[in-house]
Amino acid sequence: MVPHLVTALSGPINELEQRILESMPAIERWFRLEWMEHTPPFYCSVDVRNAGFKLAPVDTNLFPGGWNNLTPEMLPLAVQAAMAAIEKICPEARNLLVIPENHTRNTFYLANVLQLKRIFHMAGLNVRIGSINSEITEPTTIQLPTGESIVLEPVVRSQYRLGLKDFDPCTILLNNDLSAGPPGILEDLHEQYLLPPLHAGWSVRRKSRHFQSYEEVAKRFGKMLGIDPWLINPMFNKCGEIDFGEGAGMECLTENVDALLSKIRRKYKDYGINEKPFVIVKADNGTYGMGIMTVRDAKDLEQLSRRTRNKMAVVKDGQAVTDVIIQEGVQTYERMHDAVAEPVVYMMDRYVVGGFYRVHPERGIDENLNAPGAGFVPLAFAESTRLPQPGEKPGASAPNRFYMYGVIGRLAMLAASYELEATDPEAETYD
Amino acid sequence: MVPHLVTALSGPINELEQRILESMPAIERWFRLEWMEHTPPFYCSVDVRNAGFKLAPVDTNLFPGGWNNLTPEMLPLAVQAAMAAIEKICPEARNLLVIPENHTRNTFYLANVLQLKRIFHMAGLNVRIGSINSEITEPTTIQLPTGESIVLEPVVRSQYRLGLKDFDPCTILLNNDLSAGPPGILEDLHEQYLLPPLHAGWSVRRKSRHFQSYEEVAKRFGKMLGIDPWLINPMFNKCGEIDFGEGAGMECLTENVDALLSKIRRKYKDYGINEKPFVIVKADNGTYGMGIMTVRDAKDLEQLSRRTRNKMAVVKDGQAVTDVIIQEGVQTYERMHDAVAEPVVYMMDRYVVGGFYRVHPERGIDENLNAPGAGFVPLAFAESTRLPQPGEKPGASAPNRFYMYGVIGRLAMLAASYELEATDPEAETYD
């Protein structure tokens, strides 16, 4: 089931698709060379939006949930990619400890954890789930609506290692984005592989830092392909020292929103795009679709409702918001049964292993879809027709569109790799 | 569509399946460690036979054809594995030259070449087909019954490199088994990667050398798993200096057939197997299903027909047979619509990417199926249910049976890796 791309102006994206398809060997080689210099994040999911005239990533998740949304057809690809990842990082590993988010009642999330367990078991590891939730004090079995069950066990910390009772893993896979900062129990584990590393957590990550890297990646990729990088790059500004509760720092926000809207307007004019520009203001350390608002006019910021201010002031795990990123809004013109849809691309190691559409029947094309009420529809990614079909008319072939999404997803993953190198506290510096 | 396993005695294979499934993480780790020490052949297919009481590889092809028999569902796995292989061997490669067999009229074979071209194109290489057939003197387009067409181009040799007009590949993929010996045009290419290497060709390879390595692999694997390696290892002897035309060397053959039949009889007795043992006599350098006969009693060798002698005397490309391997026969008890079937497992780099059943309606369970009249039915390998299903009753789950076949296929691939190391003319020797 492939969403229909409903847009008057699809010329630019069809040209991009054609260019990407024709350049497939060059693109794949470009990625190969990049991965010789840079290490991909262990796993990753990327939200992509397709405006018909522009295609861009809008969020890159280094602790992806939602693996349970991938179809069974995609699992063999995920297992094969997991094997490749393990082989490179820790071929001698026997045991893998997965550290999930602290939710114990979100069975949808727990189904995701069970799917990860299944993937890494098939890839050849003994997998157990270690909770850092203080409520989990003994092995706890939770029944899922699917009929399956999952066992969460309390982690046990020794001086240098983390494990479970009678289970000493050589690798620890984080599926917890550490919004509240890494708990002490995860620090100074120098004898074990911790994947992704602690500085990939949201207490260190900043969206603006990621999109700065993405801009660099998009420029280099655009140059290689001979395209305007704007076609795949959402422009952005940022502001610090904001207090939404007190209304402090709003001048910076107003000015930057206004400036970015003007820049977008000029781009739209150059391309003959007859759309109303908008920006998305997001908490720079936000996740879980929290701390996000759509702004269509800088004046709107003067009259933010109390509800919106509250929503913007605090994100996951009660973290206060002081820094925001103001990002060029990219409409999503894909629709599934009248509901607005955006593709989410899943990657493991350097491989695209699948994806799905996030669909929200109550949201507009210029709004965040990662919100309660969203549904998930597997992409046709890994189905029989998934491989690109050279020679198809641009815009007419779903596999070709998905290949293009996979390229954009990998560009964002590469940006995350640049970002993690730049923020690595243990990086060697050459003064 | 999964063939039915029709056999009275399936206990041992069900135990083996259960053991293999329970030990999945240990098995995958064992392979990971092996691949740290040994390089997998670039690609490989393995014929497997399932006798219910025994499961064994009977032939390992290092220049696999038949890629066109894999279903579209399996292609993404093949592409991902090809990406992994290229990344390791030649990440900077732009161009790949495929050297096929010299047949220009076998459109079924050419469809296989086209499939390989597609896989490596998707993996990110510019792929062209260079023929070493002296009849191809200019670019030649051949129409296939599928409606597709393939272009064969004459290779161009310079002092150090091989290529096509205006096409300089940094990697050359052989899909030609070099039965007649490597042509001079392929020798001394020290600036280009030649995959697989020349000594993987049938002018150098010997089946007995391969099964010697396989025996070593099976013993080590059996020890790890705690099983009798005979359950997965076909015993063998060999004879040299045979002339089937003149009848020379037949005493050696008779003695060895008799000795091996006795050994099999003892094993059958130990396991309570009520079957008639048989051996397969094969040209030690044979391929394409040529030079193979089934022997049920050493006395039968005294009265070989002229036709059988002729068939055994010469194999592919007119190579005379002087050396034979006498291999324990493994019945195949799988059947598809009453026709005898044997699984063929396909691998790229270290990954199982798919497979199919070779089915022959006119052959018996103790005969070679690789013969004119054989048909091909894709295995359910890469379909949604492909991943093993822990907890299923042994013998009841097709995915579990295929996982077991994939393990056996990889053991044979590992044996090929040992074999190629032992026969590498450029290997460093430490005296």
From TrEMBL, chains A, B:
Major enzyme class: ligase
InterPro entries registered for this protein in UniProt: GshA, GshA_N
A single MF term (Gene Ontology): glutamate-cysteine ligase activity
Organism domain of life: Bacteria
UniProt keyword terms in alphabetical order: Ligase
EC number: 6.3.2.2
Pfam families, per the entry: GshA
Coiled coil regions, renumbered to chain: none
Residues annotated as signal peptide: none
Keyword Cell membrane (UniProt): no
Keyword Cell inner membrane: no
Full protein name: Glutamate--cysteine ligase
Organism in which the protein naturally occurs: Ramlibacter algicola
